[in-house]
Amino acid sequence: MKNLINFIIKYFSWLVFIFYLTICCMMLFQNNPYQHHVFLTSANRVCSAVFGVFNHVTSYFHLHEINEDLHNRNAMLEMEVINLRHELESVKLMIPDTATLAVGEHDYDFILAHVISNSISQPQNYITINRGTNDGIAPEMGVIDQNGVVGIVNVVGPHSARVISLLNPQFRLSCKVKGSDYFGSLVWDGKDPYHAVLEEMPRHVKFAKGDTIVTSGYSSVFPEGLIVGTIVEQIKDMNDNFFSLRIALSTDFTQLSTVRTIRNNRQAEIMALDENTSIRKEDKK
Amino acid sequence: MIKTVLQFIALFIILTLVQVVCNHICIFGVAIPIVYIYFIIRLPINLSVNWAMTLAFLLGLTIDIFSNTQGMNALACVVAAALRRPVFSLYFAREDDLANPIPSIQTLGFGIYIKYLLSMVLLFCILLFSIQAFTLHNLQTTLLRIAASTILCTLLIFGIDSLDTKREKRL
């Protein structure tokens, strides 16, 4: 017993060192970002307060570019409204009774949020937004801005939430080339914040540079057809049956300011459906 | 004694806030300013290694929370704090001769201080970027980042030091 106590006293520093090392490694190798505790992420109260103060100052810096982007987007949407109105008129002419046109509820709503913290230089980047459970944000909601896809919510506090950025290798986004049904998964390769790689594209299909990449809508997180980026070049893949495309991202992650969180009104329904089918599969086993 | 403790608490808070701003900076895509290492460098040399590691762990954890890096900075800080004494004794053998245990240009002299500073910053950058490299391995980029960040951090810490010496002279 005496020896043991002597041993502990002699090597106390080593024990302390190993203790801290273990804690750090446990945190470091807990790979799944959905399991992080709110307290240990930037979605906690103190962090969001500090980021809020900084954001008050820095949010003015890029207003000019953001305004330009919004004007462009506005013009595009206006054109789309005009086109759709024309289409609707022509459809109305064909159908005598417009009451038969089902309007139905919207599948998706948006919740506006401000980015209060954002990183682009880390190997795994996260974004913090100033909306939380009190504003209706829940984990696994998609986040977009006026230019394209931004990320997916993963940890939510009462007044703030942390978003896994598209610039995080742990986030894979199912995408397709606009106008075709060939889809692959988009993942960031960690080189620079303006490009990502679209993997697992079928080999036999030819794509042109500058083709638009949009979300496939195969997950319930993002609706179909949101712009992600454009093709820059084709890169060789290790796997022979597929190839990869280098994509210029349409979202400028260096200048994120206002983003929209997508709430899918049918997500619960789809999840319940998925759960039912998986239970049935287990029953069969 | 209490004055020193308060000074270090203030240093802790200021460096954390400065680092929150610095997290958004990445020069040429490689050099990342890491200023909070200054806290570990400035801790009194005669402080026991247990305390140094505890403080370094808390500092690293705080930075981790702000930059969403789960244990990455905390690990680098703890190892750096544990290796601080051995690094210091490489350049300065007679620890007891020091009038003031807080390392600075005045107490150590320019030559020894810059060697100590450079080795600590280099050590820390190697630790931090090799831990990062677990998640994203690219040897060339990692080496480039280590070199660029070491230079940038050393320069920044010199800047902070010069602010500090000015204040001391005025007093």
Question: What attributes does this structure have?
Answer:
heterodimer, A: 285 residues, alpha+beta, Thrombin, subunit H, 32% helix, globular, B: 171 residues, mainly alpha, 8 helices
Rg over CA atoms of chain A: 24 Å
Number of strands of chain A: 12
Number of strands of chain B: 0
| Backbone structural class of chain A | alpha+beta
Annotated CATH topology of one domain in chain A:
Thrombin, subunit H
Mean pLDDT of chain A: 80
Biggest sheet overview of chain A: 6 strands, antiparallel, barrel
Per CATH, the architecture of one domain in chain A is: Beta Barrel
Give a written overview of the molecule:
The complex is a heterodimer of chains A (285) and B (171). Chain A has helices at 2-10, 12-28, 45-58, 63-94, 267-284; strands at 108-118, 126-129, 142-144, 149-156, 161-165, 173-177, 183-187, 195-202, 212-215, 227-235, 242-249, 258-264. Chain A has 285 residues and is α+β, with helices and mostly antiparallel strands. Among the domains of chain A are: 45-94 and 108-168 and 259-264, Thrombin, subunit H; 173-252, Rod shape-determining protein MreC, domain 2 (Thrombin, subunit H), CATH 2.40.10. Chain A is globular and about 95 Å long. Chain B has one domain. Chain B is globular, with a radius of gyration of 16 Å. Chain B starts with a helix and ends with a helix. The mean pLDDT of chain B is 82. The interface between A and B is large, with 37 and 35 residues.
Question: In short, what is this structure?
Answer:
Chain A is α+β, with helices and mostly antiparallel strands and 285 residues long. Chain A is 32% helix and 27% strand.
